[in-house]
């Protein structure tokens, strides 16, 4: 069973999502929170697999709540609920550690797919879509940290392709290697840079002025 925590300040919205979640044989709702502070507490108590997180809430907003939850439990998977495709709040949430975002008016099937996708350890938004967010809502570039210099030449090539949004299959085809080899390189790159997934890799590339070489 995939344990889901629903966080939104609108009770009617929470009820609708809860009904949707509990209509599925592989999903269970382990709690509801009306603000970010409640979300942090319930995330600690219930240890949900996936958290559906609204952004704009009283007491503590969804971005701050996401940051606190992910810091306390790095394996937590947070899906941000946003109103607009290109929303600065979504970009900030991804920086804070969210695994992706979906629109609040998404079809029920998409919401269910989102929960299962992030629970499986995959990113919810394409790296290219994440990169578009940071083009629209970027901040001043930072110098690349020393850890980036620790990547091998081969790892930098893979990094560049992944930052473009290429899948493992596409990278394997481009570099004439197996997908297993690509996965190994990606895992090593993420470990060396202290990143949790490919979405954060794109964030890293853009914020440290490395997106240009991935363009």
Main attributes of the structure:
215 residues, alpha/beta, 11 helices, 5 strands, globular
How would the blueprint of this fold be written?
Blueprint lengths: L1 E6 L3 H12 L4 E7 L2 H11 L3 E5 L7 H11 L4 E6 L5 H9 L3 E4 L4 H12 L7 H10 L9 H4 L3 H12 L3 H8 L3 H15 L4 H10 L8
Parallel strand pairs: 1-2, 1-3, 3-4, 4-5
How would you sum up this structure, described in words?
This protein has helices spanning 11-22, 36-46, 62-72, 88-96, 108-119, 127-136, 146-149, 153-164, 168-175, 179-193, 198-207, and strands at 2-7, 27-33, 50-54, 77-82, 100-103. It is α/β, with parallel strands linked by helices. It has a 5-stranded parallel beta sheet, with helices on both faces. The mean pLDDT is 88.
The H/E string reads EHEHEHEHEHHHHHHH
Sheet/helix structural class: alpha/beta
Amount of beta strand: 5-15%
Whole-number mean pLDDT? 88
In short:
With 215 residues, this protein is an alpha/beta fold. The chain has helices at residues 11-22, 36-46, 62-72, 88-96, 108-119, 127-136, 146-149, 153-164, 168-175, 179-193, 198-207; strands spanning 2-7, 27-33, 50-54, 77-82, 100-103.
């Amino acid at each position: 069973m995939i344990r889901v925590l629903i966080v939104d300040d609108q009770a009617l919205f929470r009820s609708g999502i809860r009904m949707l979640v509990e209509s599925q044989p592989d999903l269970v709702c382990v709690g509801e929170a009306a603000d970010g502070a409640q979300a942090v507490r319930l995330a600690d108590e219930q240890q949900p697999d996936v958290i559906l997180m609204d952004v704009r809430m009283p007491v503590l907003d969804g971005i701050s709540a996401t940051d606190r939850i992910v810091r306390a439990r790095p394996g937590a998977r947070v899906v941000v609920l946003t109103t607009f495709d290109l929303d600065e709040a979504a970009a900030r949430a991804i920086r804070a550690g969210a695994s992706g975002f979906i629109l609040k008016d998404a079809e029920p099937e998409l919401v269910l797919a989102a929960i299962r996708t992030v629970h499986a350890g995959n990113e919810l938004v394409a790296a290219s879509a994440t990169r578009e967010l940071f083009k629209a809502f970027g901040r001043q570039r930072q110098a690349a940290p020393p850890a980036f210099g620790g990547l091998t030449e081969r790892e930098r090539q893979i990094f560049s392709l992944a930052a473009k949004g290429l899948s493992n299959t596409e990278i394997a085809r481009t570099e004439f290697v197996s997908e297993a080899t690509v996965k190994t390189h990606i895992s090593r790159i993420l470990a060396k840079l202290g990143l949790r997934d490919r979405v954060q890799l794109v964030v890293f590339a853009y914020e440290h002025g490395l997106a240009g070489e991935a363009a």
